[in-house]
Amino acid sequence: MPQILPLFLLALGGAAGALSRVGLAAAVQRWHGGPWPLGTFAVNALGCLLFGLIAGAAAASGRWSPAVTAALLGGFCGAFTTFSTFAHDAHRVATAQGLLQAGGLMAAHMVVGVLLMVAGLWAGGRLAA
Questions:
Q1: pTM
Q2: DSSP assignment string, 113-129
Q3: Measured at the alpha carbon of residue 82, what is the angle toward residues 81 and 84, in degrees to the nearest 5?
Q4: What pLDDT tens digit does each residue of the chain (129 aa) get?
């Protein structure tokens, strides 16, 4: 039974993060009312702040269990927004390898992500037709 608890906490965190993402993005978008996706922007910004707060607190205290840390970072933050993980990875690369490598990582994520989204939209449209 103890091996199931970390997975349960991860799933619970993921469910809470996904529900929070959809709810917050929709609420901000309704409030904003404009065409610019402010709801997504707000979720990504808040997700980065939360990821940093949680990762910083866990590292500084040294008392958080791996299961709780995984549930909050991988579960909640991961389902709330993967942009927070992307930002954390970019920071780690910048710190360890330099700004040029971090810039390359960020550019690769953005270019490949948009190109694959366009490819997926095209292929999905062809498959559904």
A1: 0.79
A2: HHHHHHHHHHHHHHHH-
A3: 80
A4: 568 999 999 999 999 999 999 999 999 999 999 888 899 899 999 999 999 999 999 999 989 999 999 999 999 999 999 888 899 999 999 999 999 999 999 999 999 989 999 998 898 888 887
| CA–CA dist 106, 89 (Å, integer) | 9
* CB atoms inside a 10 Å sphere around CB 129: 5
Rounded Cα gap, residues 82 and 77, in angstroms: 7
Name, in order, each residue with C-beta under 8 angstroms of 125's C-beta and a sequence gap of 6 or more. none
- Domain limits, the chain: 4-97, 99-129
